Amino acid sequence: MKSREVLQHLKQHESQLLAIHYSCQSLGDGNEGLSPRITSIAVLYLASSSMHSFSIHLIAEVRNRNVKREEIHDHYDDLEKQMLIQFYDFVKSHQDAFWIHWNMSNINYGFEAIAHRYKVLSNNDAPQVPDSRRFNLSKLILGIYGENCVDNPRMVNLMQLNGGRPRDQLTGLEEVEAFKNKEYIKLHKSTMCKVYWFQSMYYKLQARKIKTAHTNLWNRTSEFMEKPVVKILGFISVLYALFQFAQAAYVGFPLPQSHDAKQSNPAVLGELVGWGEVRTPTSTKSPIVGFHSIQPNLRVVVIEDNAALVAEFHEMK
Fold this sequence. Notes:
Helices cover 42% and strands 15% of the residues. The chain has 317 residues and is of the alpha+beta class. It starts with a helix and ends in a 5-residue tail after the last strand.
């Protein structure tokens, strides 16, 4: 589906929309494992703004009150596993949800990466979030405003253009440093503020009020032409044009007549005035059924006493 069609579909199901984002270790090769650990996941109901968050520091506080912040890294596997179990319990209870995300599209960073970590830690397959229920907000914005509407990094630049960067938001590199420094609350706050931003951008996108760095004239024109009022006016214009065409065709259709008929028919012997109005002599008894105020240089059918003939009107000097 095109972006406009997707947005129409989502608008009809906004009570089922969830925004999701998560933070993790570096996406490079600097981790102790082969896949980056997940430290927090935030899920937001767009309609009600209710937040559900999952984080290893919250799990640590609940499961073992004796675990200090600096000791969390010694219990990563167990804490991450329990966090993911809670997250997938939430997923299983929201099978009818539609998920709004930002480039969570592959095994490197996305739903598949979360499922992989769950498989590694629990040795079980994760409940699936169907592809048909995932919608990439970044792609939707580019689909409406054009691929070059904003420079990379797109999220940060769009934040700057649309109200400024949220106070708690961290860039990818900043999140990696926060993880190294064991700043788990800082990481979690960054994750939550991003899903709130997704919510804001989704509604701005539906209203077509997102500010971009570069204007795509073709996209803007196409969007304008899709408005209901423009479609109605276009339909009326087509009907009017067809009516004008039919009228012109009827007026200008030539009938086979002899030029001699012009000399014997009183309708044609009438006086030409103005822009081609026919004025018949007063001696004519039969009314003429015809067209008046005809434009110059056209041919018109004039009917008098049921006899049709062609009168050629020319511009009066």
